[in-house]
């Protein structure tokens, strides 16, 4: 029980870089809430756009070809992957971030 008491004491009265530890622990949670909210909103927009695209394609106003989609994936895929890696590298990953992400996604 000595190690657990030390951790709790550090959380309550310690500091990291001049800030109280609890503030440093809450920051990833708040960022997770914001990212979860934005992901939820983006998925709604993406689903609506996909439905509109499918209807337009079915009616003949817009043509979807696998060759064109493959060319777009070859052209923009590596760039999207690179930006995704940069985003994941900037986000403070931890249990607080994951919990915030889930709660932000559910309650958005």
Task: Give structural notes.
- This protein is mainly alpha-helical.
- The protein has one domain.
- The protein has 4 helices and 2 strands, in the order αββααα.
- It has a two-stranded antiparallel ribbon with strand order 1-2.
- Helix 2 crosses helix 4.
- It is elongated, with a radius of gyration of 21 Å.
In a few lines, what is going on in this structure?
With 108 residues, the protein is mainly α. It has helices at 2-13, 21-59, 66-90, 95-106, and strands at residues 15-16, 19-20. It is built from four helices and two strands.
Q: Which short descriptors sum up this protein?
A:
single chain; 108 residues; mainly alpha; two-stranded antiparallel sheet; 4 helices
Could you name the ranges where pLDDT drops below 50 across 5 or more consecutive residues?
none
Number of strands: 2
Level of helix content? Answer: over 70%
Read across the widest sheet, the strand sequence of neighbours is 1-2
Order of helices and strands: HEEHHH
Q: What is the total number of structural domains?
A: 1
């Amino acid at each position: 029980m000595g190690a657990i008491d030390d951790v709790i004491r550090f959380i309550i009265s310690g500091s990291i870089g001049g800030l109280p530890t609890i503030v440093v622990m809450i920051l990833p949670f708040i960022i997770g809430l914001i990212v979860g909210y934005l992901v939820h909103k983006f998925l709604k927009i993406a689903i609506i756009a996909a439905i509109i695209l499918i209807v337009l394609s079915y009616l003949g106003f817009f043509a979807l070809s696998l060759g064109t989609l493959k060319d777009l994936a070859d052209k923009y895929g590596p760039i999207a992957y690179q930006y995704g890696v940069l985003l994941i590298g900037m986000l403070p990953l931890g249990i607080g971030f994951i919990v915030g992400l889930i709660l932000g996604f559910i309650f958005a």
